[in-house]
Automatic annotation (TrEMBL):
Residues 1-26 form the signal peptide. It comes from the Bacteria. Keywords: Signal. It comes from Granulicella rosea. This is Uncharacterized protein.
Length: 262
């Protein structure tokens, strides 16, 4: 049988394709690598920088439609519904009905408490973290507030102390910064929708870098005076990467705007 040059080349190419395909199918699947995250010299994730939320959590942690004051947004509550005790739910409803004049943040210029300070008015905050330091410092544009996350293993002070921002003790669990906070004032609001807490509030915040410019911010909220069980929120925080971006001075006036601009 006589084969032409073209015929032979065709057979050879087909054989090579079969070998190549069989070789490729034998290779193990390669799992995608997790994005690299910045680290300090001690190996801990580097949270230094200015961060900001961009969602609608400050208006209402749960699903809400747009109104004349706020855009609509989806819930950041993992359980979708906050598990209020019956009497506490009535208080929340009363708060909501009078929120224009009762919200401690928007109507009275008070400190928001935790975790609301993280997403209050979607204003930025700056984290300062040193390698092998005994605390992490956070400065907030809102009300020029600040928090200390003590990472030196010291416990919460004895007794109950009424603070807007509570007492915070932190530790690292792998690459996640876990901040445990207690000792809060009674009646702090979590959002402008009237969701509130008592002096029995216990907050556990988890900061985990997703990549260089995003933090997954998870919070567990436990308050046996107000809720039937602990519940959780999950918010993405974004790094401000603009050149020379910085926190600005903050001024708030407790003024009855609704009286003049209903």
């Amino acid at each position: 049988m006589i084969f032409s040059r073209t015929h032979c080349l065709t057979l050879l190419a087909g054989a090579l394709l079969v070998v190549s395909a069989s070789g490729q199918s034998a290779k193990p699947a390669v799992s995608p690598r997790a994005p690299a995250i910045p680290r300090l010299s001690d190996g801990k994730p580097n949270l230094n920088g200015i961060w900001q939320s961009i969602g609608g959590a400050d208006a209402d942690l749960q699903d809400h439609a747009a109104d004349r004051y706020n855009p609509g947004a989806q819930s950041v509550v993992d359980e979708h519904t906050i598990p209020y005790l019956p009497d506490a739910l009535k208080t929340r409803d009363d708060n909501r009905a009078q929120r224009r004049t009762l919200d401690p943040v928007t109507a009275k210029c008070n400190l928001p408490g935790v975790p609301r300070l993280t997403y209050a008015r979607n204003l930025p905050f700056q984290i300062f973290q040193l390698p092998k330091g005994d605390k992490i410092t956070v400065l907030y544009e809102y009300a020029e507030a600040h928090r200390f996350f003590y990472t030196n293993g010291t416990p919460h002070p004895p007794g109950h102390i009424n603070w807007y921002l509570g007492d915070s003790r932190a530790k690292w669990e792998g690459d996640t910064l876990v901040v445990d906070s207690i000792d809060f004032l009674d009646g702090l609001w979590l959002d402008h929708a009237g969701d509130y807490t008592s002096d029995q509030l216990h907050v556990v915040e988890r900061y985990k870098l997703i990549d260089a410019d995003h933090i997954d911010y998870k919070v567990e909220i436990d308050d046996p005076k107000v809720y039937s069980k602990p519940w959780h929120i999950d918010i993405t925080l974004y790094r401000r990467t603009e050149k020379d971006f910085q926190l600005l001075d903050y001024v708030c006036y407790a003024f009855p705007y609704e009286k003049y601009y209903p």
